[in-house]
Amino acid sequence: MAAEVGVVMAASFSTMVCGARLGTWLGPEARKAVSYLYSTVVFPAMVFRGVAAIDLSGVDWQLMLTILLSKLAVAMVCLLFGIWRHGSQGLPHAAAYAMAASHSFDVTLGAPMAKVLFPVYAGYIYLNQSTQLVAVNPLLLILMEIGGSRSKGASISSTVASTVKGVATNPLVLATLVGLASGRAFPAGLPPVLAALSKQIADAGPFLGFVSLGLAMNNLSATSGSDVRDAAVLCAAKLVLMPLCYAALGSALGVTAPMAFLVFLGSLPASASVYSLTLTRGLSPRVVGPLVPVSMLLSVALSLLPNDAKLATVSAPAALRLGIGALAALSLLVPQGAVSPRPHAE
């Protein structure tokens, strides 16, 4: 089992290294173009295919409610943290923080791992993603649009119009809704041409996603102490608070899935698609960039440690989560003036 997960991780990080090397040859605009292609075309195609294949008739709706409430709770905590860090004019950055902590790397990384560790429940990986895209991300995108319009001095009517347009035309939201509709319209499977086209585009997803992360790694030298502190807090929200919410709410709501799966689902790392979004919009990409690969390594460690008999007996996963939380708490104790201030525009 560990060997199979190791293959997934080796391929993922090798592609990230390729992206880091590629970043030395590409300028800022070219790097943004790669991320834009991934976040607006390729990743939506992956989501569309995964969602279209879901059979909603056997879904545990208590688990779905657990997912929704957990994501909303973490998003709210990180939104407040982002407002505290960036001020009232930094609402778009705060919304990006909330999305980075609540949106998981489900399809590209979570699905391959779940098929190895929890094959019976692997379909919920796509539902975890769908909940984020349909119910959580639209709310955060609205806050991004409102904050952006306010900073430009736009009127209330134009702000509302741009907000509605931005959410309604978001590729990930559209891909999820169309995927759900297609799954109901074609229960036996997508039409051959649509299936072949979406598969051809989606197959580029893992490569472009990890290349985008590699491009972020290439720019880590620009990360400030303030960025690192914020990334540490978001990492704790992602890998400590989120699984705690999944476990507590799942137990309270009587979810039938094993607790180990709930913790795994809540411990999936931050998503490369969110990094791509922050890069193209200029919303703290130097915070989200380091967060994604670091949370990937820690997430895999948290997923594999319980399967090691010797380490499981000494509560290694709990110790690691405690360390992540302690590091985040210490970073919050650093005086505001001890880290260099960061302008909103990046």
Structural descriptors:
globular; disordered C terminus; 78% helix; mainly alpha; 346 residues; single chain
Mean pLDDT value: 83
- How far is the first residue's CA from the last residue's CA? 42 Å
- Summarize the main sheet: none
Specify the helix fraction band: over 70%
* CATH topology title: Na+/H+ antiporter like fold
Low-confidence region ranges:
337-346
| Order of helix and strand elements from N to C terminus | HHHHHHHHHHHHHHHH
If you had to describe this structure to a student in words, what would you say it looks like?
- The termini are far apart.
- The chain has 16 helices and no strands.
- Helix content is about 80%, strand content about 0%.
- It is mostly helical and about 350 residues long.
- The protein has a single domain, classed as Na+/H+ antiporter like fold (Up-down Bundle).
- The chain has helices at about 1-25, 30-50, 60-85, 90-100, 105-115, 125-150, 155-170, 170-185, 190-200, 205-220, 225-255, 260-265, 270-280, 285-305, 310-315, 315-335.
- α6 packs antiparallel against α7 (about 155-170).
